[in-house]
Amino acid sequence: MPRILQTGVYESEDRLAQSDLKDFLRKIFAAWDMDIERMLPVFDSAEISERQISFPLEWYRTERSFAERNAEYQRLIPSMAKKAIAECLERNQIGPEAIDHIVFLSTTGIMTPSPEATLINDMGFRMDVKRTPVWGLGCLAGAVGLSRGCELARAYPDQAVLVVAAEVCSLAFQGSDRTKKNVIATALFSDGAGAALIVGDEHPLAARPGLQHLHSQSAIYPDTQEVMGWEVLDTGLSVLLHKSIPALVQRELRGDLIRTLEKAEMCESDIDFVLAHPGGAKVLDAMEEVLGLNQGSLTFSRDTLRRFGNMSSPTLLYVLHRFLQGDARTGKKGILAALGPGFSSELIACQMQ
Predict the structure, then answer these.
(1) Dist CA 328 CA 219 (whole Å)
(2) Antiparallel, parallel or unpaired: β 16-17 and 3-9
(3) Contacts for 300-306 with beta carbons within 8 Å, 24 or more apart?
(4) 178: closest CA among 64, 30, 54?
(5) Given phi > 0 = left and psi -120 to 50 = alpha, else beta, which region is 120?
(6) What is the model's pLDDT at position 32?
(7) Which residues sit opposite 340 in a β-bridge?
(8) pTM for the complete prediction?
(9) How far apart are CA 10 and CA 26, in angstroms?
(10) Helix axes 315-325, 299-308, angle to 10 degrees
């Protein structure tokens, strides 16, 4: 069985308090003569204390083109990813030359060649390392990257796969967008990067402690493409975010869980932990209800949301990072879960070994 080993994450020394972001938005929107106070409580109910944002708040006062925002994406993504990768490699006590395949996930900008090409040249990866860049999965991508990485390690059991996810979600703030969904997105999203190492069972590192992959379950729900995604504007990417997401979770996720457990030869009583992408406080509440968990029990997910906000694709890697550094005891079985554009879910059944 493939094994997910140690992880690494990007942590910036510059932190932005949720209260400061709320005050900033109040000042910007007040100039529009609109009832911004009616929308601002979402900053308090989001259960976020602080986050990483790549620019000073004043940067967002100026309207910027897609080209200008994308240039910042191309500048920031490799530097953020490098820090997450460096920590991941250090924790696993290997060098970049030991990596056979890189799966790179992102959705907040465009780069051709894709970001891992820069990382390969700058960090000393082998020139024959395989590359699989994946774009457009958003909040789903962390779980999908781990699933596809495990499948690659199953197909090539002597190889090491590096999964990397990086986003600059703050680039999507549209200062001229007066809609509620823009306020909600501003209250939720932030910037970050994460990395995880996966090895096959014939790799020299396969004897190390890690999460053994048992089964992955992918699902896309019909006719829900408009629930989450991007609208492409001259001023950049503008988030599409529908209020029906918690209801979709309650309607669909339980069936996905049952199918995952059946394929992994597990039952609900076998679940010792759930590591969920924290799409938002209401989404976590819905996931707890559907999965039959006590309210507030998604500790690692809620703590990541509180400290970092929703960073889209890398967020689940931050949750996994906290788990592996803390409560990861041998023999425990659990589920990794994420939801995102499609509208889709990805569940991974795993066991700590």
Answers:
(1) 27
(2) unpaired
(3) 300/275, 300/326, 300/327, 301/274, 301/275, 301/276, 301/277, 302/47, 302/278, 304/278, 305/46, 305/47, 305/48, 305/278, 305/280, 305/281, 306/47, 306/48, 306/49
(4) 30
(5) alpha
(6) 61
(7) 344
(8) 0.95
(9) 29
(10) 120
10 Å CB burial of residue 171 (0-12, 13-18, 19+) is: buried
**Which residue of the set 88, 139, 169, 350 is catalytic?**
139
Q: Are 42 and 241 in contact (CB under 8 A)?
A: no
The yes-or-no answer on residue 150 being catalytic is: no
Residues 32-47: tens digit of each pLDDT? 656 677 778 888 988 9
Token pair recorded at residue 319: 């949750």
**Residue 44, helix vs strand vs coil:** helix
d(CA 135, CA 142): 12
Q: Which residues are registered as beta bridge partners of 101?
A: 130, 161
Kind plus residue range of the DSSP H or E element containing 100: none
β-bridge mates for residue 287, sequence order: none
Supply 183's token pair. 């306020």
Q: Cβ distance 190 to 51 under 8 Å?
A: yes
Q: How far is residue 57's CA from residue 53's CA, in Å, rounded to a whole number?
A: 9
* Alpha-carbon gap, residue 350 to 335, rounded angstroms: 6
Burial class (CB in 10 A: 0-12, 13-18, 19+), 157: middle
**Cα separation of 169 and 147, whole Å?**
23
Within 10 angstroms of residue 178's Cβ, the number of other Cβ atoms is: 13
Indicate the angle between helix axes 115-123 and 66-92, nearest 10 degrees.
Answer: 50
* pLDDT tens digits, one per residue of 148-174: 999 999 999 999 999 999 999 999 988
In degrees, rounded to 5, the angle at the alpha carbon of residue 305 between the alpha carbons of residues 303 and 307 is 70
**Tokens 């925002």, located at residue:** 69
Look at the block and give the residue holding tokens 């970001």: 115
The CA distance from 192 to 172, in Å, is 14
